[in-house]
Design brief:
- The longest helix is centred in the first third of the chain and has 16 residues.
- The chain has three domains: 60 residues, Integrase, N-terminal zinc-binding domain (Arc Repressor Mutant, subunit A, Orthogonal Bundle), CATH 1.10.10.200; 90 residues, YebC, transcriptional regulation domain (Alpha-Beta Plaits, 2-Layer Sandwich), CATH 3.30.70; 71 residues, Alpha-Beta Plaits (2-Layer Sandwich), CATH 3.30.70.
- With 247 residues, it is α+β, with helices and mostly antiparallel strands.
- The chain is built from nine helices and ten strands.
- 45% of the residues lie in helices and 25% in strands.
- Strands 3-1-2-9 form a four-stranded antiparallel sheet.
- Helix 2 packs antiparallel against helix 3 and helix 2 packs parallel to helix 4.
């Protein structure tokens, strides 16, 4: 079941780029505000608790978290009203994209995403059917042997497992079992380094051409530079040899 894939190559580079741009804190605040609309008490609001946990994992200060909760509950009357939107798009080389946006202005976000796509060889189109909405986990197995770890991850509810490095695993689970899988992972001794809801491609599109790969990565970078874009997902699977040429 386990295998190396583009997720570690692109997704983890994205996380580093986000941190460098200082975008992480802002996005966590927006996500917390959205979750807090259903209640500001994390003990009574599992979605808010999860949003806060993810923010703390990225070292978001408590003051930022408190402000975000107040904006979501309406206690901060000057707070923006954020909502989550997903855009579907086609990209270079027959690739498909799902673009998650957190915004307080849908018209602005729609215009920005459309403009970025048009300038970078993409276009809006129906692509959601090519992806599954899934729970994503990056976990550390500690001293556990890899074979034992993989079997335990399957028992915890992992539907797909990908290699990251000697101690970490990337895994995906059915979205309806998110909380159950997270608890099982903790109870089984895994350290959860990251968890979130993602779009996972049902089938990858192999990209073996350097020029096409450059266009795809340029589009991803341009989208992620937009302040409202939270995550970008693609079915483009850039080969190891092409990635080596790009490094």
């Amino acid at each position: 079941m386990a295998g190396h894939s583009k997720w570690a190559n692109i997704k983890h580079k994205k996380a580093a780029a986000d941190a460098k741009r200082g975008k992480v804190f802002t996005m966590h605040a927006k996500l917390i505000s959205i979750a807090a609309k259903s209640g500001g008490d994390p003990e009574m609001n599992p979605a808010l608790r999860a949003a806060i946990d993810r923010a703390k994992a990225d070292n978001v200060p408590n003051a930022n978290i408190d402000r975000a909760i107040k904006k979501g509950t309406g206690e901060d009357k000057d707070g923006a009203n954020y909502e989550a939107i997903s855009y579907e798009a086609m990209g270079p080389g027959g690739s498909s994209f799902m673009i998650d946006v957190i915004t307080d202005n849908k018209n602005r976000s729609n215009t920005n995403v459309k403009t970025i796509l048009n300038k970078n060889g993409g276009s809006q189109g129906s692509t959601a059917w090519k992806f599954d909405r899934m729970a994503f986990f990056l976990v550390n197995a500690g001293d556990m042997e890899r074979d034992e770890a993989e079997l335990t991850l399957i028992d915890c509810g992992a539907l797909d497992i990908e290699e990251d490095n000697d101690d970490n695993f990337v895994l995906f689970a059915d979205l309806s079992t998110y909380g159950e899988v997270k608890k099982s992972l903790k109870d089984s001794g895994f350290q959860i380094k990251k968890d979130e809801v993602v779009w996972k491609a049902k089938n990858d599109i192999p990209i073996d051409n350097v020029d096409t790969a450059k266009k795809i990565l340029r589009l991803i970078e341009a989208l992620e530079e937009d302040d409202d874009v939270n995550n970008v997902y693609t079915d483009a699977d850039i080969s190891e040899s092409v990635l080596a040429e790009l490094d």
